[in-house]
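Input chain follows. Return structure tokens only.
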Amino acid sequence: MKRLILLSIAAVLLLLGCDRAKTVLFRSYINMYDYSENIQLKITEAGNIAIYQKYTSKDDNIKTAVYSFKSKGEEKKRYDELCKIHNDMSYNQKRSYIVVPIWGRCFAIDFREIDVVSDKNFDSEHPAGTSLKDIVRFVSVSPKKFIDSGYKETFNWERKEPKIFKKEKETNKLFSYSESKNYFPINGLLKDIGTDEMQMLPVNTHGILFFDKEPTAEKEHTLTVTIYTREGKKFVRKITKVFK
């Protein structure tokens, strides 16, 4: 019985130890970068196109990686490189967490350019196979402005949330509301935005494509979405969208 009691006490102490908050000085706001080349497209309930990360198994042979402040070796070296690229080197804040930090996680792949073309004539100005950059916009969020401001500038979502975010439920998956003030909206036509706007994107849903115009003839279009990254990679994905 005495041994059983001692074992029970040990188990309780172990559980308490696991739940004990750890306070750490974080040099960078982003503490974890998720890398995945399994970038996919899906049509949302609202009819827009979400660019998202499809999670894979070890058997899928698709490159994935996690680079964090806890990483070792080459992974830690890559984490430090990404922090330097994003000018995220002087956060210097002590923050507490239990298992893993609930803030500062983002996609490791920065988008440089996105192009969209259709297999059918969209309207008189956009024949089949021509770019739709001037009528498709990319919507997402990023902590880039917060970081670039020296971790001072924030965004008031309650007062300034862009109307386009309220039209799409998938925008709720873009970031954690506990850190929402540190994330600024991205909302621009593909012809107008580039790497500066599409850095440090959310991990799960990287962004959403909205059409500013409807097609004038055929309603069903097979769209080719080409994503060019900061590192020079190209991802080409196709999706069928039926316009109302």
